[in-house]
# Entry
Amino acid sequence: VQLVESGGGLVETGGSLRLSCAASASTFDDYGIGWFRQAPGKEREGVSCIGPRDGRKYYGDSVKGRFTISVDNGKNTVYLQMNKLSPEDTAVYYCGADPLGCSGYGMYAGRYEYWGQGTQVTVSS
# Structure
């Protein structure tokens, strides 16, 4: 089971980035895919998740209205479009696979069985 993130980088305040999480076929069929982020000295924070089968989505309060999660089932890839970025969004972003899917009500890192290597997002002020 592999998850591979890409798309991080350096962007100015107000800018946009799109992260990608490519998953192996078995993962994609059986798991919800979620994005977490972790800034230095802070706990891992659930950002957004999606259930590839049912399309259920969840967004953390800090990103609602700015981030959009989507899925391309043909490519086994989940995307996180991030707009109106601010320095507070600076973190390493990880995608993970949750065997219980995406609840639509919250994200719990302990449920996630597999993780990608992370991709750095840095927003300059």
Notes: The longest strand covers residues 91-98.
